[in-house]
């Protein structure tokens, strides 16, 4: 079935620039690929364009009109590059604790309950189903997930996220030392064997139509202090052998950084630990990076790795305020956004984008420079930056020909909305293009700073409708 969408589009193909496309027709083929984004005077001409370029008739084309919703627009699906699915029940718990105490007092106990036994599988199914549903309803079409050290529940998670239709990087947590919670770890051999088993499980999903752009295993050393050298070396080899992406944590908390220095005195800094063991490359997502040293930023840029910025979490557990604008414009790093549930309390990347802007404003209060982030950068990081981090730049991140239709329909007039739209802001259909663009930009600002999941009325992933609140 061919689908033709009509409406206004807002996206950020370039860092710092918001592109608004008014009254566009978007043609999406049966595989979910965008064939064209085109301004057409009317529907009939758009249909004629489709039929002249495809072996389909008018009757085989589904037309979805969005511009009849006056305060609406299409935006790309959000990409959450750092989220702990297993920690979802702990949202809001532990704001009085710094990172390492928070892990020891709240996180490891919860994660250890998600195991291959009957009760553990039941709990995992409940948690994983809810977290995927929650992220999808907030417009997240792609996410890079941490699960737990348990492989059976991780495979269950892969099955759940495939069934729900969300793009996902599925990360079984790998760790072989944990003095603070000794029962929650695996041996080096178990970590490697189970990771191989997860790869095979995802291959079976691939045979069912879920290729690696939809469901992909990701090498996930939790973080350097909980992984012995031999394990990290083996994980680096696995990533190379199976051509897998990598995710981990780096330079989140000052106490954590000091711990890494004591464990790896032969490494120049935290980031270089991962580089030493083959875990730093163009497919590596480094979560947090709050306190990166100059040499670390140089190394990350040289390796084309990405930083997953998690401002909600960094604030909630008092890790620090990352100078993201400097990372983007001076250091040349690719920076994406992560909810970091449950260290973070925002379930939506929209909320994380708000946190990003507000944290940058706090930094600006004590700086002679201008570290403030605007919504153009925030939306770029939430979409294009995430696509780059996930090595999906040619697949998602914007609404343009050749990419998959991963999108959200935002409606600020939806029933029960938190956003009040006044008549002076609402498009009426008789504006010039410039006037319409100005109104849409106003609506965009109102959505970013006052909107929530109620305004995300439809979500498509890979061309398939996965959320419909209408």
What is the count of DSSP helices, taking H or I runs of 4+ residues?
14
What's the number of extended β-strand segments? 18
**Span between termini:** 21 Å
Domain count: 2
Secondary structure: helix percent: 25-40%
CATH topology of the largest domain: TIM Barrel
Major sheet size, sense and barrel closure: 4 strands, mixed
Function: Catalyzes the hydrolytic deamination of guanine, producing xanthine and ammonia.
Keywords: Hydrolase, Metal-binding, Zinc
Organism: Candidozyma auris (Yeast)
Catalytic activity: guanine + H2O + H(+) = xanthine + NH4(+)
Task: Describe the structure in your own words.
The chain has helices at 43-53, 99-112, 118-137, 151-164, 188-207, 229-242, 254-263, 270-276, 294-303, 311-316, 324-329, 349-365, 375-389, 433-450, and strands spanning 2-11, 19-28, 34-39, 61-65, 72-76, 78-84, 140-146, 167-171, 173-174, 215-217, 220-221, 246-250, 284-288, 306-309, 334-337, 407-411, 456-461, 464-468. The chain folds into two domains: 2-76 and 398-468, Roll (Urease, subunit C, domain 1); 78-389, TIM Barrel (Alpha-Beta Barrel), CATH 3.20.20.140. The strands form five sheets. Strands 3-2-1-4 form a four-stranded mixed beta sheet, sandwiched between helices. It has a four-stranded antiparallel beta sheet with strand order 5-16-17-18, covered by helices on one side. Strands 6-7-8-10 form a four-stranded parallel beta sheet. With 470 residues, the protein is of the alpha/beta class. A hairpin with a 5-residue loop joins strand 2 (19-28) and strand 3. Its cofactor is Zn(2+).
């Amino acid at each position: 079935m061919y689908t033709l969408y009509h409406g206004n589009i807002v996206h950020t193909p370039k860092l710092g620039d918001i592109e608004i496309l008014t009254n566009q027709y978007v043609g999406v083929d049966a595989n979910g690929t965008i064939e064209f984004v085109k301004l057409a005077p009317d529907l009939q001409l758009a249909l004629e364009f489709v039929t002249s370029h495809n072996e389909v008739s008018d009757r085989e084309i589904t037309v979805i009109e969005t511009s009849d919703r006056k305060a609406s627009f299409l935006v790309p699906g959000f990409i959450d590059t750092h989220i702990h699915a297993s920690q979802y029940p702990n949202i809001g718990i532990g704001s009085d604790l710094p990172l390492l105490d928070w892990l020891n007092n709240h996180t490891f106990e919860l994660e250890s309950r998600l195991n291959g036994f009957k009760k553990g599988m039941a709990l995992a199914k409940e948690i994983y189903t809810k977290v995927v549903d929650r992220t999808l309803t907030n417009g997240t079409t792609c996410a890079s997930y941490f699960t737990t050290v348990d492989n059976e529940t991780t495979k269950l998670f892969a099955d759940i996220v495939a069934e729900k239709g969300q793009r996902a990087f599925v990360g079984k947590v790998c760790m072989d030392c944990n003095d603070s919670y000794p029962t929650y770890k695996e041996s080096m051999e178990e970590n490697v064997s189970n990771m191989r088993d997860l790869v095979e499980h995802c291959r079976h999903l691939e045979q069912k139509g879920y290729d690696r752009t939809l469901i992909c295993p990701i090498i996930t050393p939790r973080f350097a202090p909980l992984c012995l050298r031999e394990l990290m070396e083996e994980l680096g080899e696995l990533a190379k052998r199976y051509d897998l992406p990598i995710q981990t944590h780096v330079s989140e908390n000052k106490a954590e950084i000091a711990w890494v220095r004591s464990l790896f005195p032969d490494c120049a800094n935290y980031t270089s630990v991962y580089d030493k063991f083959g875990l730093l490359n163009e497919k590596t997502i480094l979560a947090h990076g709050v306190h990166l040293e100059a040499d670390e930023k140089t190394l990350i840029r040289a390796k084309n790795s990405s930083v997953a910025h998690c401002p909600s979490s960094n604030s909630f557990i008092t890790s620090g305020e990352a100078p993201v604008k400097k990372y983007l414009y001076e250091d040349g790093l690719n920076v994406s956004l992560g909810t970091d549930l449950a260290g973070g309390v925002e379930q939506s990347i929209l909320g994380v984008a708000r946190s990003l802007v507000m944290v940058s404003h706090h930094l600006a209060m004590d700086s002679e420079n201008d570290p403030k982030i605007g919504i153009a950068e925030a939306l770029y990081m939430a979409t294009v930056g995430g696509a780059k981090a996930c090595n999906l730049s040619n697949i998602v991140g914007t609404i343009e020909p050749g990419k998959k239709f991963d999108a959200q329909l935002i409606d600020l007039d939806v029933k029960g909305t938190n956003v009040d739209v006044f008549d002076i802001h609402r498009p009426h259909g008789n504006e010039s293009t410039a006037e319409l663009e100005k109104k849409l930009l106003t609506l965009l600002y109102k959505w970013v700073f006052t909107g929530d999941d109620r305004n995300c009325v439809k979500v498509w992933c890979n061309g398939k409708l996965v959320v419909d609140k209408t």
